[in-house]
Amino acid sequence: MSNSETSAEKVIQGMLGEWKRSMLTFWVLSLLQIRPMYGLEIKKEIESSTQGKMTLGVSTIYPLLRRLEKRGLVESDWERTTQGPPRAYYQTTPAGREVLRRYLEEVFLPGSPIAAALGELMGRLFQQFPELMQR
After folding, report:
1. Domain boundaries, the chain
2. Phi, psi for residue 26 in degrees, rounded to 5
3. Which of 62, 74, 94, 126 is the most exposed place for a label (fewest CB within 10 A)?
């Protein structure tokens, strides 16, 4: 592999990492809106729903939950368990629900400017890369 290929791979991995971190915040808020969950449960849910293509370490999920809690987007409630130490269950706060609602409205709602622009862009890109549609 040449230096330019190595450099390009580093850029690609960095960009994918940024995208995954951003999507992870949305994903966690979404799961916690559906029902309260503890950290390892969130991790397993994400890994399971991606058929293992996205794996998370505990060093990823718990710092994210702490950041979201510090920002007032989630709150934790400690509950005793029949096995092991007490467990923190997280749920969205009103501020977290508002962030999630705005994200859905501005990014995913079919009529949103971002969704419309991405839809058009994706159509054009798939014309350029038709092999992607065969996967």
Report:
1. 3-134
2. -60, -45
3. 94
Separation in Å, CA 24 to CA 28, 29, 61:
6, 8, 9
Instruction: Find out if CATH 3.40.50.970 is the number for domain 3-134.
Output: no
Residue identified by tokens 């368990």 is 81
CB 44 within 8 A of CB 54: no
Q: CB–CB of 90/36 below 8 Å?
A: yes
Q: What is the DSSP letter of 123?
A: H
pLDDT (tens digit, 0 to 9) for every residue of the chain, 135 residues total?
A: 566 667 888 898 888 888 878 889 999 999 999 999 999 999 999 999 888 888 888 888 999 999 999 999 999 999 888 888 889 999 999 999 999 999 888 888 878 887 778 778 888 888 888 887 776
The DSSP symbol for 72 reads T
Q: Which pTM does this prediction carry?
A: 0.77
Pairwise CA distance, residues 32 & 36, whole Å: 5
